[in-house]
Design brief:
Largest sheet of chain A: none
Strand content of chain A: under 5%
Number of domains of chain A: 1
Order of helices and strands of chain B: HHEEHHHHHHHHHHH
Distance between the termini of chain B: 33 Å
Number of strands of chain A: 0
Number of helices of chain B: 13
Shape of chain B: globular
Largest interface: A-B, 39 and 42 residues
Number of helices of chain A: 11
Largest sheet of chain B: 2 strands, antiparallel
Radius of gyration of chain A: 19 Å
Order of helices and strands of chain A: HHHHHHHHHHH
Structural class of chain B: mainly alpha
Radius of gyration of chain B: 19 Å
Helix content of chain A: over 70%
Strand content of chain B: under 5%
Helix content of chain B: 55-70%
Number of strands of chain B: 2
Keywords (chain A): Membrane, Transmembrane, Transmembrane helix
Oligomer: heterodimer
Protein name (chain A): Membrane protein, putative
Transmembrane segments (chain A): 21-40, 60-77, 113-130, 142-169, 181-200, 206-224, 236-255
Strand order of the largest sheet of chain B: 1-2
């Protein structure tokens, strides 16, 4: 456990070095969220909408999405892992007395947590000083907020467990660019990154709802914005736990299989 | 000059050939671009299965807006995409090598980095355009056809200019200026709706500062017969004036450029 904590600490210190990058990121997230909200506001204004989320819920959803943006990215800054596989330094990784799956899992999770810690507060602050209809509204009760936190942690777990599967495919293909673009597009869309899942039409939604992608950013954001309540929240968290366990299990198996046949490229 | 152009064509051909060496990778990347554009179209499509219109633009009209911006972006990025790796080129000394060659700097940056997988995005945009034109309710005249072509071509040039500006900014910041993505990828993302829906402030900004509305919003009004003034046809061409400051900033940055060493 201590090893993993120190991996985590190194990552945080590492990403604190690039403060100007963080500043640019904060501005980008703020304007991105603002533009999305203005577009939605025009859609709601046009009337005759039968959206299943209120405007204020959509506003909170979008702000929180921007606040936790990096945390739930499936494809994000794991360049070291790609180059480890490509360059052959995977051989060194394999002689270390640690499980490679756990190490990479921890590394990917910290890669996402560290910049989030830097960015989340300023964006949240900006979102909460906006004028009335565009302001982020906090969850109504403490219970809901705690469930949101729990769900966020689980969502991060599902995201990283899914990313691990992507790394494992790199053992076989070596070309990461195409796969990264495809995975980014599909996961963003199916996890509610393009539009929140409740905006999907009914027949599609019933299938999309049970996919692992629905257990990613979709769940914590819906809980935060208050568009799901009561039993639905518990069901959602159960779905997240199920996919987390399933993806980790599949990942461990696939990793074992891949490492049995690994060919180290170069020396 | 003829010799020069041949050199650049050779550059492009060589680049295409080298991208084709990794067929699976090229294919997957193109498919990826296609899917990316497809998901953002579906996002829009799903929204319009629940509402009829945004402000007073119907779904067909919005899809057309989306397709035009997407096409402009994909052409602009295919040509100007080399600028996105510009910070890397400064970092690893490739840019220094370019500077000592007696040829045009910008073309040397761009030619080896033309990304043909962007065709995936373009193909998708053409499909959406073909789908949107019949349902947009536009009565076509040759002036309107010309306007549409100008929208796409000048839009591409504007996106190219934005990528150039982004590269120019990295002369001053060294790190890739993250906030410029709001203008490049952001314009692609938010250009799916006519810019007027974001309110007056945004529309003014996109008319007078970064003239994206000149190729997207005003010509669209002309296509829809809401504005009749024929001067609107050449508004996209006027927006090209924006390229001058972009180029000037780049030149200014280059004149102050200090190599990072190595």
């Amino acid at each position: 456990m201590r090893i993993y904590l120190s991996i985590f600490r190194i990552r945080i210190i590492n990403s604190l070095q690039y403060r100007t990058v963080a500043f640019g990121e904060i501005i980008t997230r703020f304007f991105w969220g603002l533009m999305e909200i203005l577009a939605f506001s025009a859609l709601y204004r046009s009337g005759q909408s039968n959206f299943s989320m209120d405007f204020s819920q959509t506003v909170s959803y979008i702000w929180m999405q921007q606040v936790l943006f990096v945390l739930f990215l499936v494809v994000f800054g794991d360049g070291e892992i790609y180059s480890t596989i490509r360059s052959g330094s995977i051989a060194y990784e394999l002689v270390r007395p640690m499980s490679l799956y756990n190490r990479w899992f921890c590394q990917s999770a910290s890669n996402r947590i560290a910049p989030t810690i830097l960015n989340c507060m300023p964006v949240l602050l900006l979102a909460s000083i906006m004028p009335k209809p565009y302001k982020i509204s906090l969850p109504v009760g403490l219970g809901q907020f705690l469930l949101f936190l729990l769900s966020s942690v689980l969502a991060l777990g599902v995201v990283v467990a899914f990313t691990m599967l992507m790394y494992i495919t790199l053992f076989y293909t070596l070309s990461h660019r195409g796969i990264k673009i495809i995975v980014t597009a599909l996961t963003t869309f199916l996890s509610g990154g393009v539009i929140p899942l409740p905006f999907f039409p009914e027949p599609t939604l019933t299938i999309v709802k049970i996919l692992p992608f629905a257990a990613m950013q979709n769940m914590p954001l819906l809980i935060f914005s208050g568009s799901i309540m009561g039993m639905d929240v518990l069901k959602g968290i159960a779905l997240q736990i199920f996919w987390l366990v399933a993806l980790i299990f599949i990942g461990q198996l696939a990793m074992r299989h891949a490492l049995k046949n690994v060919v180290v490229q170069g020396g | 000059m003829v010799v020069n152009m041949k050199l650049y064509w050779d550059f492009i051909a060589m680049n295409l050939k080298s991208q084709m060496q990794y067929k699976l990778s090229f294919f997957l990347t193109t498919v990826g671009q296609f899917i990316t554009a497809f998901t953002s179209f579906f996002g829009l499509y799903f929204i319009f299965s629940k509402v009829n219109a945004i402000d007073d633009f119907t779904n067909g009209q919005v899809f057309m807006c989306f397709a035009v911006v997407m096409m402009a972006f994909s052409i602009g990025e295919m040509i100007g995409g080399g600028f996105t790796v510009f910070t890397m080129m400064m970092g690893n000394g490739e840019f220094d090598r370019i500077l000592v060659r007696p040829r045009n700097t910008i073309l040397q940056i761009l030619m080896p980095h033309m990304d043909f997988s962007r065709l995936g995005l373009l193909v998708q945009a053409i499909i959406v355009l073909c789908y949107a034109i019949p349902i947009s309710g536009i009565t076509w005249t040759w002036q309107k056809a010309l306007t549409l072509c100008l929208m796409i071509l000048c839009g591409s040039a504007l996106f190219f200019g934005l990528f150039l500006l982004k590269a120019a900014c990295s002369f001053f910041t060294v790190e890739s200026p993250e906030f410029m993505n709001i203008l490049t990828y952001g314009a692609r993302q938010f250009g799916r709706y006519p810019f007027s829906v974001y309110g007056d402030g945004v529309l003014k900004f996109l008319t007078y500062v970064i003239p994206l509305a000149l190729f997207q919003y005003y010509p669209l009004l002309y296509l829809l017969d809401r504005k009749q003034n024929p001067i609107i046809i050449i508004l996209p061409v006027i927006s090209l004036l924006f390229l001058i400051p972009c180029y000037a900033v780049f030149r200014f940055g280059m004149s102050r450029y200090k190599s990072t060493g190595s």
